[in-house]
Design a protein that fits this description.
The structure is a homodimer. With about 475 residues, chain A is an alpha+beta fold. Chain A contains 15 helices and 18 strands.
Chain lengths: ~475, ~475
């Protein structure tokens, strides 16, 4: 990267050759707001925020950036949890907020061609208006944007049935680090004409190109869903419950959370406790409502075998959404504790041993701290949130957690698991990447970075140290 | 590439440092057999065939190849249709035939860890033995190998429901052009730790690395399937039939073929004509047998609207497989005509206009030739086979077809379609790549080739001209 010697005023005067005055923000409040994501542990210090309104403006900016001596941080809904959209070092934040339109709807193909700044929920709503369904969903979908979903290959709560964002990207337009516009795959189902670059950009966290448009595939609306919440006496029973239900019917979701997670949600939202008696763990299942008989039968069998001790089932859409709040409210309810988030995964077959590993680490290293467990255990994905005590500074707390991480990550490495299952690497996990990727893989990733971003201007220092 | 100055004997003596004598073949018949694929239009001239039995042997060979001045052609079941596995220029063919074992089965994950030389049908059979299902299927699955399926991202007859090979690759081991072994993704569902290199190698046709092992994901067995064959009076009604059935139920397959295609199968196999009266086109549908009532209702409605004129439905598994023969026998039945294969696709919404384009080209340029139409119209994928008259030489025939191709490909380019939907690029479509990929994309592909194969020893001249 060229040295960064721009003052705000110098940048403003240069930027006027590309942007209108109302497309550039440099007020301290704006810098703080658009310069960060949902992490709260990184220094935030952007030079400016720009709000392009066309692909051409982004191309022009990217081509000028090396000359101007500025790096660019692509920015979506800023709901990331790994610092991938944080601007710590006088970067220009390139917000996609104003490129949020649906450009075209291909009805026969069930494909929406949209700009990257489209909010995930707006895509879900558009789909519903057409009698269709966009299946990727998570608690931040009211703020997150499709471009960010693609850049992180977002997962969420229905991966068990519908996979990750990658699966729904039928076409992708990116601006590379040299300002080239690649329009990839054009919504085709079958296209065997060489390397599928689309998949390289999905999950690349804005380090290879800026996602500017996408063609997202929709599905027919699923039949009505029913939600069941179960009280589970023991962490190790969760996998037995999962298997019993998976053998009996197709699950749309299988989430679990701990009693402490539930307590945090109850303290934060006006929702009732699902059972009068607390239980160490809970599971939330979703499935086609017309399978209710089989679901009930399966419930009876897991109750009998002692894998669950109680259960409740939704009788209406509003009850279903109230039950979902118990799970979806967790992240928000613990945000004020600046949690240290572990987002880890292994193959499903490794889950039992992996849970033992994690329990040991927690009891050895965090006996004095609150640990909130939840996650998508049907995908092998566990969210382990260590809460910061009010009297410990963020720096000290993260320092302590970072010191413990290598021990946990070694165990994950031993099981060929992932140190970042769905949150991405960003700044938070960058220095631990070697626990999930080999030296040869990391060298290859660096070489690919040089191909698409030879000047090192795209989200530098994220994912790979510059 | 280094100059190629090896004699057979020189190579044999070098190869003995890596391989046992029975792992190297240089007899003319063997060279002819393993040096080609199902195309019959390319010069075949390999220096030798080697049969490695371990990843280590492949690594050693790849590392020595630049020094030895030889290029390598990775070779699976040799059922390819674009010359991707042809060795025209004194290459060493690296056959995976002897690396055909299942290494491990992860039951909880429903994942098979296998060597790349495992025959597709052997994976299907293994899955069935476990009460599971490997959904990728095509007429060559009795010969094709998993490694080749991955290298070409094979599609086939059930893409409409289950997608392409890519979707089932949970982990992948490749040997790059520098002899590095990359073990990618390890069967994880969620793994957001940087660029997903796995997807770059899927569909790369052996030009970036040699696929040596894979972790393939299986599915629960689907319920019993029923097959329906319909007689359709007019090409343009096919899409209406597809829509009617897709709106009513989930299709596992929707294939179409022309009367001439049927005639070729009937001449080649001992199967009966499905209807007493010939029809210009036919469609074959497959769906869950328990949906028979809805399927019958839909049949009545398309019969009434004139979209179909007759129909037959399978009453047993053997009847279902007899009906499938009508479609799956086509490729084999026309092989002796050395057909010029067009494997083209567009977005589904573009299919009607695209069919008009193709009809015009056929009537203008091939009025004197037999044209066999079939394909996976539910994926937007059409196979247009021009049959070679017995009195025209292969060279002259291909020359003529190649001269006409640009006009067809221009129309496909205009619709942002693919000039190779599922057969890959290989040698056959290499010089037409620009009709489906932009100059910028092709430049990026070349740069990626240099990253993973800096010596240019992996399948040179395939996909991209060296």
């Amino acid at each position: 990267m060229p040295p960064q010697s721009n003052t705000t005023e110098q940048f403003r005067s240069k930027a006027m050759s590309v942007f209108a005055a109302n497309q550039v923000k440099t007020d301290p409040d704006d810098l703080a707001n658009w310069g960060t994501d949902w992490t709260r542990s990184f220094k935030v210090d952007p030079l400016a925020i720009v709000f392009p309104e066309s692909v051409d403006q982004i191309v022009t900016l990217v081509k000028l950036a090396p000359e101007w001596g500025v790096a660019l941080v692509p920015s979506g809904g800023r709901t990331g949890l790994s610092g991938g959209a944080v601007a710590p070092n006088q970067e220009i934040v390139v917000s996609l907020d104003r490129m949020n339109k649906i450009l075209e709807f291909y009805e026969t193909d069930k494909i929406v061609h949209c700009q990257a700044g489209l909010v995930t929920q707006a895509l879900q709503d558009f789909a519903a208006d057409q009698g269709l369904f966009y299946p990727v969903d998570f608690s931040s979908s009211g703020s997150s944007q499709i471009g960010g979903n693609i850049a992180t290959n977002a997962g969420g709560i229905r991966v068990i049935r519908y996979g990750l964002t990658r699966r729904w990207v039928a076409g992708l337009t990116v601006v590379t680090g040299t300002g080239e516009v690649l329009r990839l795959n054009h919504g085709l189902i079958k296209n065997a004409t060489g390397y599928d670059l689309r998949h390289l950009f999905v999950g690349s966290e804005g380090t290879l190109g800026i996602v500017v448009e996408a063609e997202m595939r929709l599905l027919p609306q699923p039949s009505e869903q029913q939600v069941m919440v179960l009280a589970i006496p023991d962490l190790h029973r969760i996998l037995d419950v999962l298997r019993a239900f998976q053998d009996a019917l197709e699950l749309s979701a299988f989430e679990f959370f701990s009693e402490l997670a539930l307590q945090k949600v109850l303290a934060h939202r006006d929702v009732p406790r699902p059972f009068s008696k607390a239980s160490p763990f809970y599971a939330l299942l979703e499935y086609d409502a017309n399978r209710i008989d089989i679901a009930n039968e399966t419930f009876e069998s897991v109750l009998e075998s002692g894998c669950v001790v109680d259960g409740v089932v939704s009788q209406s859409l509003s009850q279903a959404s109230a039950l979902w709040e118990l799970r979806e409210g967790i992240s928000e309810s613990i945000a004020s504790f600046t949690p240290y988030k572990n987002d880890i995964s292994v193959r499903i077959g490794e889950v039992p041993g992996f849970l033992e590993d994690v329990e040991r680490i927690v009891s050895q290293h965090y006996p004095d701290l609150e640990v909130v467990w939840f996650g998508h255990i049907g995908d092998g994905n566990l969210h382990l949130n260590i809460l910061r005590p009010a009297d410990v500074s963020i720096d000290d707390f993260y320092q302590r957690c970072h010191t413990i991480s290598p021990e946990l990550f070694s165990l994950i490495q031993h099981r060929h698991g992932s140190i970042s299952a769905e949150h991405g690497v960003g700044l938070l996990k960058r220095d631990f990447l070697n626990y999930s990727r080999s030296d040869e893989e990391i060298q290859a990733m660096r070489a690919l970075k040089r191909v698409f971003d030879p000047h090192g201007i795209l989200n530098p220092n994220k994912l790979l140290a510059a």
